[in-house]
Every structure is written in C-alpha cells, then in structure tokens.
Amino acid sequence: xxxxxxxxxxxxxxxxxxxxxxxxxxxxxxxxxxxxxxxxxxxxxxxxxxxxxxxxxxxxxxxxxxxxxxxxxxxxxxxxxxxxxxxxxxxxxxxxxxxxxxxxxxxxxxxxxxxxxxxxxxxxxxxxxxxxxxxxxxxxxxxxxxxxxxxxxxxxxxxxxxxxxxxx
Amino acid sequence: xxxxxxxxxxxxxxxxxxxxxxxxxxxxxxxxxxxxxxxxxxxxxxxxxxxxxxxxxxxxxxxxxxxxxxxxxxxxxxxxxxxxxxxxxxxxxxxxxxxxxxxxxxxxxxxxxxxxxxxxxxxxxxxxxxxxxxxxxxxxxxxxxxxxxxxxxxxxxxxxxxxxxxxxxxxxxxxxxxxxxxxxxxxxxxxxxxxxxxxxxxxxxxxxxxxxxxxxxxxxxxxxxxxxxxxxxxxxxxxxxxxxxxxxxxxxxxxxxxxxxxxxxxxxxxxxxxxxxxxxxxxxxxxxxxxx
Lengths: 168, 292
Prior knowledge:
The structure holds two protein chains of two kinds. By secondary structure, chain A is α+β, with helices and mostly antiparallel strands. Chain A contains five helices and five strands, in the order E-E-H-E-E-E-H-H-H-H. Chain B has three domains: 7-53, Uridine Diphospho-n-acetylenolpyruvylglucosamine Reductase, domain 2; 62-173, Uridine Diphospho-n-acetylenolpyruvylglucosamine Reductase, domain 3 (2-Layer Sandwich); 179-291, Enolase-like, domain 1, CATH 3.30.390. The longest helix of chain B is centred in the last third of the chain and has 25 residues, at 267-291. Chain B has helices spanning 14-24, 37-42, 78-83, 85-90, 92-98, 104-107, 112-118, 124-131, 227-233, 243-254, 267-291; strands at 7-9, 28-31, 50-53, 63-65, 69-73, 135-140, 143-148, 153-155, 158-159, 166-173, 179-186, 196-205, 208-217, 224-225. The A-B interface holds A 2, 4-6, 8, 24-28, 31, 47-49, 52, 55, 58, 61-64, 66-69, 71-72, 116, 119-120, 134-135, 137-138 and B 1-8, 10, 34-35, 38-39, 41-43, 49-51, 53, 55, 79, 99, 102-106, 108-109, 189-191.
C-alpha cells in the first residue's frame, strides 16, 4: 500500500481570477470547477471524453475538462462558459448567435458547444460548411439535429466579422 | 471522484521520469496527453498506484527537421503536429492521418508519443509510423536505444518497451520527391476508432514503384504491414498498376486477415471493408505519385 494520495496545491486562473486550492490528485478539472469553484456551467455528460459537454479553454485551447486532472491545470488559465462574455449581463458573439439561431433546446450540451465554437472561430474566422461540420463532430447534441447549431456557427462568424469592421 | 486514488508525480526532466519508473515498475503508469488513459481510470478499467505525468517535461515537446529526418518529441500535441509546416511538407501523411484522430479538442491535448506508446490496434498513428519507416527513441535506466516502428507493437495496447523505459521521440525519414500517400478508414462516426483502416506510402523512380508500404489497422491485435503486397508492387511499372491489378493486390493484402467480431462489426465485415479500403488507398496514393 502506498502512504496515501496526499493533496496538491494548485493555482489556476479561472475566468481571469486567480484561484488557489488543495486537491486530491485524482480530482478532475471538471469536478473542481463545478464543486469547488461553483462554476456549474461546465456540464458533465459522459465523463470519459466522448460527449464534449465539459469543454473548457485551457490556455485558450479547447479541451475536455473531464480528461484533465485539476493538478494538471496548475499555473494555467482556464476559461469556462461563464467567462466568455465581457460582463454578467452580456452575451459573447457565439452565445448571441446560438440564441438567435435556435442552436439549443434542452441546453445541456450547449456550454460545451459554445466553448468549442469560440475556440474554433478564433482559429478559423471564416470556415466552410465542411469545416464547421468537422469542428462540431466532437460535441454531441441529442435535441437539435445540429442544423440550428450549424446556422449559429455561421451567424457567430458574421457577428465577429462585423465586430472587426469587415462587411459581410 | 471517479478514478481510484493514486499518487501523482510531476517530473521536470526525462531522467527524473526514468528514475520514478525504475522505482515503481509496473505499479506506475506514464500519463502523457491522457486522452486514452483518463477514460480507463475514470471507468476503473485500469488502476495504478503511481502516475508519472510527463506534461512538465519541456524537453519532450517540439519538432525539428535536419533535412533528412523529422524528429517529433513524444509530448508534442497532435494539434501542433497537424499544422506544423515542416510536417505538412516532409510527412504529409502524418498531418492527414491526424485529422482522423479524435476531435480537435482531443488533439489539443493528445500527444504523438502517447498514441504510439498506447498501441491501440485501431489507432491511425502506429500504422502511419510503420509505413513511413519511422523509428522511436527510447530512454531507460540502461541507456538509450532506437526501435523501428515495425518492431514496436507487440500486442494490443502493448509495445516492446520495458516498464522503466520511456518513448521520448519519433524520427520520420523524409520521403523522396516522387511519392504518394493515402490514409483511409471506416468508423461509425468521425473521430471514432476505425472498424478498419489502411495507411499507404509509395515512392517511385524511372516509372517504377521502388518502395511500397501498406499497413492495416483495426483488423488485428497490432497494426499489420502487408509485405506480400509490397513485394508484388516493388519493381512494377506504374503503367501496369491498372484497376484490376489493384483489386488483386487488395485481395492479397486481406487474404490472411482474421479480424475479431465485436459490438461494432463482425470479423468478416471488417475484412471486406479492409479490402475495399486497400483498393482505395492504392488508387489514391498512385494518383498522387503520378502527379508528383
């Protein structure tokens, strides 16, 4: 037997705020965000990397927070769905597009989609339909049939182009 | 918390990681990108007392190119390899195959070394490494050694590495200018593990195939090279490789296959799919070769 798992100190920048914690090594980032930081916007569906509901940005890259130990996020920045908009009563361009295009029904998968699409459009601001379909393939939605979500990605790309001063 | 308790070690150097693996032996497991290991731990299909996390070892990440060989550090993220200009130029098959690996969120975390060391028989990268003639650098307490990808995979989820050895990088030789590649697979959904797949690398000189490597994945206990097909093709005039000849080669590639039945597909279905995919891969790689 080993002499106990011990706790590890972590410091993570969550949505722009430094948070210190002591965690068991086996605690996932997803559970830490939900249970310790009380940021329950990050949803847990499958908890083994398939559904994409728990997607967050780790140092600005979209990752599955259920497949990451909290201890591995030490000294990193994490952005959850709560941190995407510029203020508490604001929506990010992607969130606004999902609302406008009926990109959600029950809403369970939505935080994962919104975070994934935010990262995708940052890397590829003017995607083709094939690129959109491929980018969405890592997130599962059981309600919408995806068409509203695909429309929302196109709409979000338009919103972001307008915000940059490009005429679409 | 879903995984069983473990101790987490976070070495900064390869030497420290080797030391930990030497001390703990098979009680320890290496944690690279975690995209395969974390689900196994969460579902408690696997349990280890000690996890050795490589994510703080900076020397394990990076891509370098010396004109003859592309050297990719084991912890280089798949997403970074996929878009690296030197990879797209010198090993285009690798960049193409990576698009089949999970989804972009998985590739942001998953590593090239992790995919090779995990040795999933349905994974793309082991087969790609085999057809490109890649060699992996391995470091252990008894020193460093190199293992050709063709000799790396011993069993499903098992390489020939000892428990105290670490795969630190993969070396991919640059293919000649006259080359053609293909990777083809069938999976239930984009990003899923393949029910059957094939990677193919051909090169030619003076109108003849001079090197042919075809490897199947998802149809055996390891990725499988097809030496009989290579032997048939090498020395053939490109003009002789017409569709009927390629169909015969595809049949030859899959003649001895005996893939297992599972929940996704029967063995005979996998074999039939594999034959079609070999045919398609040969057509596509020859087309690219002829354009080169």
